[in-house]
Specification:
This protein is an alpha+beta fold. The chain has 3 domains: 102 residues, Endonuclease III, domain 1 (Orthogonal Bundle), CATH 1.10.340.30; 83 residues, Helix-hairpin-Helix base-excision DNA repair enzymes (C-terminal) (Endonuclease Iii, domain 2, Orthogonal Bundle); 90 residues, Nucleoside Triphosphate Pyrophosphohydrolase. Helix content is 44%, strand content 16%. It is built from 13 helices and 7 strands. Strands 4-1-6-5 form a 4-stranded mixed beta sheet, covered by helices on one side. Helix 1 crosses helix 11, helix 8 crosses helix 11 and helix 9 packs across helix 10. The structure holds iron/sulfur cluster. Iron/sulfur cluster binds next to helix 9 and helix 12. The site of iron/sulfur cluster has 14 residues, from helix 9 and helix 12.
C-alpha cells in the first residue's frame, strides 16, 4: 500500500511553495499556517510572510506589530506568537538552525506531536509519523476503523512511515485526504489504495470515520462603534496586539446611528455585531488610529466595511 501511495503522490501532488525545496523554516511556517486553515487561504499569507521575514532570524527579530499584521485575517493569533517565541529560542539556543531532533522540537512553544512529526518528516525526511484530520480519515477508511482511537491511528502512521520515504508517505496520506478521500463524496475510483480499503469494499465511506457530535454554537450579540475624527482617524484600542473598535455587550451611551450588521464565527460563538457610527459619550481607554496602518482581525475589517 505504501508503494502505491508514494507513486500516486509523486504524480498527483499539488505544487505548493513549501514543497519547492523543503526548507525547514518554510515547512514550519506552512504547517503553522495550515493548522485550522485551508491551503487556498494560506497561499497568499505564506508568500507575504516569507517575503517580509525570509529567515528564522528575521522572524525572531521582527516586532510584534509586524508579525500580527502579516497574520491578520488568519485568526488563532497564538499560533504566530508561539512561532516567534520558538524562533527566538532557535536563534539563541541553536544558532538559528532548526533542530532535527524530536525532543528539542517538542520543547519549543507551539510544537506538539503533530508539528514535530511534520517538521521532522517533511523537512528532514526522518521517519516520524503524523496524524491530522486528513490522515485520520484516510487511515480509518483504509483499515475500517471508527477513527476514535488516537493511539491506534498514530501506531498505524508510525508503521507506514517506517516502510517508505518519510517525506513522501506522510504527505501522500495528507494529500490523499485533501484531494481524493474527502469527507463528503470521496473519489474512490481515482484512489491508489482502493483495493486495500475496507471502507470502499464494504461501502462504509460515509460512516467512517464516525463524526463527533458538534458542540452547539452560542449566539452572541455585540455592539460596535466606528467613531471618526476630523482627520479621519478612528477610535480604537489594542487587545493582545490587535486593534479593535469599541465593542460592548449593550449599546453604550452617545449619539449613535445604526449603520449595519455583520456576522462572524469564532470557534463555538456565532457573533452578530450591530455596527454604529457617531459619537460615544466616553472615549476613555481608546486612541485615535489610522485604520489602514494597524494590525486588525478579520472581524474588525468586517465592522469597518459595514460602517461604510
Ligand atoms: Fe478513501 Fe475511497 Fe480511497 Fe478508501 S478507496 S481511501 S474511502 S478514497
Amino acid at each position: 500500500m505504501h508503494d502505491e501511495l508514494v507513486r500516486w503522490f509523486a504524480k498527483h501532488q499539488r505544487l505548493l511553495p513549501w514543497r519547492a525545496e523543503y526548507n525547514p523554516y518554510h515547512v514550519w511556517v506552512s504547517e503553522v499556517m495550515l493548522q485550522q486553515t485551508q491551503v487556498s487561504t494560506v497561499l497568499p499569507y505564506f508568500e507575504r510572510f516569507l517575503a517580509a521575514l525570509p529567515s528564522i532570524s528575521a522572524l525572531a527579530a521582527a516586532d510584534e506589530q509586524q508579525i500580527l499584521t502579516l497574520w491578520a485575517g488568519l485568526g488563532y493569533y497564538s499560533r504566530v506568537r508561539n512561532l516567534q517565541a520558538a524562533a527566538k529560542i532557535v536563534v539563541e539556543k541553536y544558532r538559528g538552525v532548526i533542530p532535527d531532533d524530536y525532543e528539542a522540537l517538542r520543547s519549543l512553544p507551539g510544537i506538539g506531536q503533530y508539528m514535530a512529526g511534520a517538521i521532522l518528516s517533511i523537512a528532514f525526511n526522518k521517519p516520524y509519523p503524523i496524524v491530522d484530520g486528513n490522515v485520520r480519515r484516510v487511515l480509518s477508511r483504509i483499515y475500517g476503523w471508527d477513527g476514535e482511537n488516537a493511539k491506534q491511528l498514530w501506531e498505524a502512521a508510525e508503521h507506514l512511515v517506517q516502510k517508505a520515504e518519510p517525506r513522501a508517505i506522510n504527505q501522500a496520506l495528507m494529500e490523499l485526504g485533501a484531494t481524493v478521500c474527502s469527507f463528503k463524496a470521496p473519489r474512490c475510483l481515482l484512489c491508489p489504495v482502493q483495493k486495500a480499503c475496507v471502507a470502499f469494499r464494504t461501502g462504509m465511506q460515509d460512516s467512517i470515520p464516525s463524526v463527533k457530535k458538534r458542540t452547539e454554537s452560542v449566539r452572541v450579540l455585540l455592539f460596535a462603534v466606528v467613531q471618526r475624527n476630523r482627520k479621519d482617524l478612528v477610535l480604537m484600542r489594542q487587545q493582545k496586539g490587535l486593534w479593535e473598535f469599541p465593542m460592548f455587550n449593550e449599546l453604550a451611551p452617545g449619539s449613535l446611528t445604526l449603520v449595519g450588521t455583520c456576522r462572524h464565527t469564532i470557534t463555538h460563538h456565532r457573533l452578530e455585531v450591530k455596527v454604529y457610527t457617531g459619537k460615544l459619550e466616553s472615549i476613555g481607554g481608546f486612541e485615535w488610529k489610522d485604520f489602514e496602518s494597524v494590525p486588525v482581525s478579520s472581524l474588525t475589517k468586517k465592522i469597518f466595511a459595514a460602517a461604510g
